[in-house]
Write a structure and sequence with these properties.
heterodimer, A: about 260 residues, alpha+beta, B: about 325 residues, mainly beta, Lipocalin, three-stranded antiparallel beta sheet, 17 strands
């Protein structure tokens, strides 16, 4: 009997002593990996469902049926403050609510490291637009696809955010509304957002972190600036678009959590 | 290699117990069912009925136990997130075997068959869980004849082997404890204190499970369990019955992945519990149910509904 007890002790000891190799974060991670940005559209706190009615702070009830925005110029920041800029040629993404695959952006060839935040643009930056029609590569033609419809005429440029649906308000019942943002005359209206990750995204050759970003599309029309569709069903230019891009769009994104699988 | 040693030990211990004739107690009558630790709402159901060792007082037995636990869980991402029902079922071989005069070894071999609803349909998980071996040493015991009130204090420790499968993909958004095992060698410390006066008794158990990082760099949070159970022993001829009532609670630390703390994985829960155990000759049957009094598991994204345990034991 004693032998058994000793055996238990011995095994416990072996197990205890040999199993405490906690592998801490490898701060000298080498090689390249990938990182995924998941854009999860929500309306306020609710998971966005198209053709579902939501009530805004001004009492207007909207049923969104089309939500598309351009994410561009992604820059990742490491814990040590150094940054990695995704090459401009492969840093434009159309996030389309009706195309689930488009909401998950995979960024390849990211140097291994612990990343703490991401910066990106909403829309197409002015430098890109100023490259002229010839400098667009296939970006313009992609944006112009009927399924996206993210362009105006060349002179008017790209649409940055498209938010369409129907609205029920004092004088309207399920009336179609359109919010299209982009360049307004000489004002370019490109917006940027910087999101801190709640925990580090650990890019490794064998770990592809996925950053779950909540994109609150309610804020497009019901943020610091509130859009009243009673004043017009189409919001496609002028001061309102400038205010949406300056005040509302930069605050609609939040890095909710990071999976390091 | 460790796994092989472990199973060798397991079989040796079992055989030894069968042959052992020194300590044939027949105290299964005032056995107390205690399954408070079987779930690991935020990391412990993974360890499967890890700590049922505390259930039997001075009892040496082999038995089977069935545990059913129901949870509702949500991804917690949205105000309109769906709540899904999770059913954790465990069939457990359990034994408490005397190896020396004051030392008993408990062995728990769980087999899990869990199921849950998900957005994409029903998901099932079936397989052996983590095997736990625990040694308890009787530090102090009052002689029964000499006093009205008797005390028994036992202290012990053990190991939980990663015989159950850990699946990283299940550790994501929904209840991360939807696992057959933690995937790690975990260690536990335990104490049991029993106070008895005539037919009444109070059993108090405390235990602490230290969990370690598994091969997938995931670590379930350490877990503290406590329980106090009041029981009454009724005996007549070869028949005995012990109704019991008590409180049980669990406190979980956060889970870690790649050394990073994961949000909404810590938590605590307090249960009420009520049960009865009946014995006839060498056999005993027990049933026990636990209902949550208050809970905050996984940031509120996991809610325990109830736990139910049924067991059939044979005294050695």
């Amino acid at each position: 009997m004693k032998k058994i007890f000793l055996a238990v002790l011995a095994i416990s000891t072996i197990a205890l002593t040999s199993c405490s190799n906690d592998s801490k974060d490898d701060t000298t991670a080498t090689g390249n990996g990938s990182l995924k940005l998941e854009f999860d559209n929500v309306y306020g706190a609710a998971d966005l469902a198209l053709n579902t009615e939501y009530t805004n702070s001004n009492g207007e009830k909207v049923k969104p049926n089309n939500v598309i925005y351009i994410i561009s110029n992604v820059v990742l920041t490491k814990a040590d403050g150094s940054t990695y800029t995704v090459p401009k040629s492969s840093s434009y993404f159309f996030v389309n609510e009706t195309d689930e695959a488009s909401t998950l952006i995979t960024l390849p060839n990211i140097p291994a490291g612990d990343y703490t935040k991401v910066k990106f643009g909403i829309g197409v930056d002015q430098a890109q637009y100023d490259a002229g029609a010839d400098g667009q590569g296939d970006l313009w033609t992609t944006a112009a696809l009927p399924s996206l419809g993210m362009t105006w005429s060349w002179a008017s440029g790209y649409k940055f955010v498209k938010f369409e649906g129907t609205v029920t308000s004092t004088t309207h019942t399920d009336a179609p509304y359109k919010v299209h943002t982009g360049k307004t005359g000489s004002i370019y209206n490109y917006a940027e957002a910087t999101l801190d990750f709640p925990n580090n995204a650990l890019v490794r050759t064998n770990i592809t972190p996925q950053v779950h970003i909540m994109a609150d599309v309610k804020k497009i029309i019901d943020g610091t600036t509130v859009i009243n569709f009673e004043e017009g069903l189409d919001v496609m230019g002028g001061t309102k678009v400038q205010q949406i891009m300056a005040n509302n769009v930069p605050t609609m994104f939040e890095a909710h959590h990071v999976h390091n699988d | 290699m460790r796994k092989i040693l472990f199973f060798l030990l397991l079989s040796v211990a079992t055989q030894a117990a069968v042959k052992d004739t020194i300590a044939k107690y027949h105290f299964s009558r005032y056995a107390i069912l205690d399954d408070d630790d079987d779930c690991d709402a935020c990391g412990c159901s993974a360890s499967g009925g890890s700590m049922g060792f505390a259930s039997m007082l001075n009892t040496n037995f082999v038995g089977v136990r069935y545990l059913n636990q129901q949870y509702k869980s949500s991804d917690g991402l949205y105000s309109n997130s769906a709540w899904y029902t999770e059913n954790f079922n465990t069939l457990q071989l359990w034994a408490r075997i005397p190896v020396l005069k004051n030392i008993q070894v408990s062995v728990l071999v769980p087999y899990h068959f869990h199921s849950r609803d998900t957005k994409t349909g029903n998901q099932r998980l079936e397989g052996f869980g983590d095997v736990t071996v625990l040694a308890m040493y009787r530090v102090y015991q009052t002689h029964r004849d000499s006093t009205i009130v008797t005390h028994t204090l036992q202290l012990g420790g053990g190991i939980k082997a990663p015989t159950g499968k850990f699946n990283e993909t299940n550790s994501g958004s929904l209840n991360p404890s939807f696992q057959a095992g933690t995937g790690s060698w975990d260690y536990l410390l335990a104490s049991e204190y029993i106070l008895r006066r005539k037919q009444f008794g109070l059993n108090t158990t405390l235990n602490y499970i230290m969990k370690y990082e598994n091969e997938r760099a995931y670590r379930f949070g350490n877990q503290f369990n406590y329980a106090a159970t009041l029981f009454y022993l009724h005996e007549k001829n070869s028949f005995s019955m012990a109704p019991q009532i008590g409180l049980a609670g669990e406190v979980y630390a956060s889970n870690f992945q790649h050394g990073q703390e994961l949000v909404n994985t810590s938590g605590d829960i307090l249960f009420s519990k009520i049960g009865v155990e009946m014995g006839k000759d060498k056999w005993s049957f027990g049933v026990n149910t636990m209902l949550p009094i208050r809970q905050n598991l996984a940031g509120g994204n996991v809610q325990s509904q109830y736990r139910l345990a049924v067991n059939l034991n044979y005294s050695l």
